[in-house]
TrEMBL record:
Transferase found in the keyword field: no
Keywords: Isomerase, Rotamase, Signal
SUPFAM superfamilies: FKBP-like (SSF54534), Triger factor/SurA peptide-binding domain-like (SSF109998)
Positions of the PpiC domain: 134-225
Protein name stated in the entry: peptidylprolyl isomerase
Species of the source: Sutterella massiliensis
Reactions catalysed: [protein]-peptidylproline (omega=180) = [protein]-peptidylproline (omega=0)
Coiled-coil region(s): none
Record lineage: Bacteria, Pseudomonadati, Pseudomonadota, Betaproteobacteria, Burkholderiales
Signal peptide: 1-21
Domain of life of the source: Bacteria
Amino acid sequence: MMKTTIAAALALALAAGSAMAEFKDFTVNGELVTKAQQESVAAEALANNPNANQMIASPDFENQVKQMVTEYKVMAKYARDKGIDKQDAVKQEVSTMTDMILMKHAVNAYLKDNPVTEQEMKDQYQKEADRWGKHEYRLRHILVKTEKEAQDLIKEINGGASFAKLAAEKSLDEQSKSVGGILDWQSASVYTGQLSDAIKGLKKGEMSKTPVQSPAGFHVLKVEDVRDAQLFPKYEERKEEVRHLLMQRKVQAFIHDQILRADIKDVEQKK
């Protein structure tokens, strides 16, 4: 899976611009700062902040962005007055930043021309719902290090020993051992290793006949109860999250395609 790029993150933040504060034009040392410029700065700040939703919701968000832009403008004027903008290293860095800005707007333009459709969101949601499954399970388990330990526990339980008592005494799962090995309602799809298939293969009240392996060790597994799926969110609850997921995929595919088209060559070093 391709990782999220800077361009993708910025584009997604820009696409959420309608949720931003209502910025107003202002001037710094006589230089006009437009609403669009502030929104661009805000988008970059949001794209690089894991608490973006909280930032947008803050009543002080407009003032924070205005202060940020003011600092940029004041310090940029200072740099120009001192001739710092004429230094070769600074020129090279500015050129790189220009490329990043163009990349951001290219991605944003692509998303505008190729928006995520309602049908695409519904299709993605249905894939996730199908992966979750139609049923949820309440389990009881005992986690041990070796297959031999698990086999011995299965024999003890089949011989009449208490599953809950053995879980409390033997299980390596600190969270569930105090409640007799109970794992509360969950989809089988969330479990790793062989657990998911093993869960689906058991009926209510049944215990696995053999140890079930996962990355954590070996499990003695029992399905306590089964019900129709209830935990998976409704479409409207997942809609915006799905939209952003699909936007990210579109952007990644777009950038990847452009890279494949590019003529990229290593430069031989002169001896």
